[in-house]
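[job 0412] stage=complex_fold ligand=iron/sulfur cluster status=START
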Amino acid sequence: MGDTNIEWTDKTWNPVTGCTRVSPGCDNCYAVIQTVRAAGNSERYKDLVNERRPGARRHFNGTVKTHADLLDVPKKWRKPRRIFVPSMSDLFHQNVPLDFIQRVFDVIWDTPRHTYQMLTKRPERAVELAGELRWPANLVFGTSVEDDRVTDRIDALRQVPAFVRFLSLEPLLGPLDNLNLTSIHWVIGGGESGPRARQMKAEWARSIRDQCVAAGVPYFHKQWGRWGEDGTKYRSKKAAGSKLDGRLWREYPAVAGFKDKKAIGEATPPPLTDEQWERVAPVLPGREETPGGTGLDNRAFINGVRWKAWTLKPWRDLPDEFGNWNTYAVRVKRWKEGGHWPGVCERLNDPFVARFVGVS
Ligand code: SF4
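[job 0412] stage=complex_fold status=DONE, emitting structure tokens
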């Protein structure tokens, strides 16, 4: 657990280990290889993979272990991080109990300084349990799709009430020319690495990139894997490179923690849209004929509170566009005493704000 070489994350956190193969995308599972390596040194990774048989691939044997003693690990990381959880299992595996998943989500909720990335090949279980979980705004939730036999996972993902939803099209094993990107906020594509790597054809990657560009969805081309853009099998993924049509495609969703590595924790929320404002304005304190129109402009005030709730920076750093920072803390308190926040939060649907003002 700790620092990682995965291109789009900083840390891994593995309160769950072990899994079961679900589809061809699992056949060269990176977590299986890492588990076999770690099994000699750690009980957490022991007896999770089937016996070695000549010529046969090794797979997880279906045993899943939960590690309650690792639940607090992200709380000890003071600096904001992008955390991949879990990298050695699938949290929505049928053998992970609901109450343990809830505890993982609670830690994510309790550490808004971090941005978490969670990937599952079982989004249908996430849909089933969605109502039992508190979905934090700092969770980027995705599903893996390797070819068009498993695109139903994308439809399931759309039903998950995550703040940001992403697709990991890796290892890409076939064309995906008719992606439905509705309500998808980020796409990562990539080929397979390792000695048994299967080829990702260049036209499959181009088609995905073009669909993302057309739909306005950020695309991250992670790597070619062992098979390069020119169709050659290279000795390593590094040798095969990561450029697609001569350039790196390294786009991220525009949410806290994702602009680039330096910007972690510094991204700010977009201003309220007219539609959000129209929803919220009627429940704000003010004269009946001018809802939301008293004192310091309420729209700027709510945008300022969102800035604070997302960045967790001191009030004195509030950008000028939001007005005088001196008045904010008092006004937040006054709205609390007046019982205004629950109504605002219900209509605003911004978990960071709800958490900041203490509305559950
Ligand atoms: S679901 Fe993920 S972790 Fe589990 S076997 Fe498949 S690739 Fe590996």
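Residues 280 and 347 are 6 Å apart (CA to CA).
[job 0412] exit 0
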